[in-house]
Amino acid sequence: MYYRMYTTYDMLGMIFDLNKLNVMCDIRYLEPAVKQSIPIPAKKYADSKKIINMVQLQEFFPELIAITDGTEQSIPRPKNKKKRKTHYSGKKKKHTVTNQITVNLNGEIIHKSTHSPGSHHDYKIYKSKYPVLSDQLLNFYDLGYLGVQKDFPKQISILPYKKKKGKVLTDSQKE
User: Fold this and answer.
1) How far is Cα 42 from Cα 104, in angstroms, rounded to an integer?
2) What is the pLDDT of residue 114?
3) pLDDT for 33-73, tens place per residue?
4) Buried b / exposed e across 64-81, counting CB within 10 Å, b at 16+?
């Protein structure tokens, strides 16, 4: 089981009702006999090096990066006056519904919120329909999500720098 799934010693100990130290000793004791009997697959990350910065982490595990943004879809003009007011998007100058979408670098959708009225701001939707994702996930946002770092301190959030009036962004801020 250990060589097929590379489960942790803790998990194997729980399954077989053993201490993790006993599991480790048993695997080391049985490994030479098992190697002679059947072929053992090579470990996937046997040649990996210690990761020392975020760039190396992103190279090895691109699925740990997510990009979140809102998207608006046009809808026919609602008959109800209240709905007309809530669904009118001043940005698009038409009636819309807004969705919040989080994707990884492979383009796979990790999270999609339910429809919200078009008048709602991206960050307002994010706060009310917050996606429950891993804390190790590196989240990229646009400037519509200012405040996400303060409101959600446990997650790793990356926002672009906003150019201040009369100032110039440094080269490191532009990257």
Assistant:
1) 28
2) 81
3) 877 777 666 555 445 455 566 666 666 666 677 888 888 88
4) bbbbbbbebeebeeeeee
Q: Helices 9-16 and 20-37 sit at what angle, rounded to 10 degrees?
A: 100
Domain boundaries, the chain: 2-37, 60-174
> 37-49 burial, b if ≥16 CB within 10 A, otherwise e?
eeeeeeeeeeeee
Mean local confidence (pLDDT), 152-160: 79
Handedness of CA 165, 170, 173, 174 (dihedral sign): positive
- Please answer whether residues 106 and 115 qualify as being in contact, where contact means their C-beta atoms are separated by less than 8 angstroms: no
**Distances in Å between the alpha carbon of 79 and those of 45, 82, 94, 95, 110?**
59, 9, 14, 11, 34
Reported as a pLDDT band with limits 50, 70 and 90, residue 83 is confident
Q: What are the E-state strand segments in 42-115? A: 65-74, 88-89, 94-104, 109-112
This model's pTM is above 0.70: no
Contact status, residue 128 vs residue 100, Cβ threshold 8 Å:
no
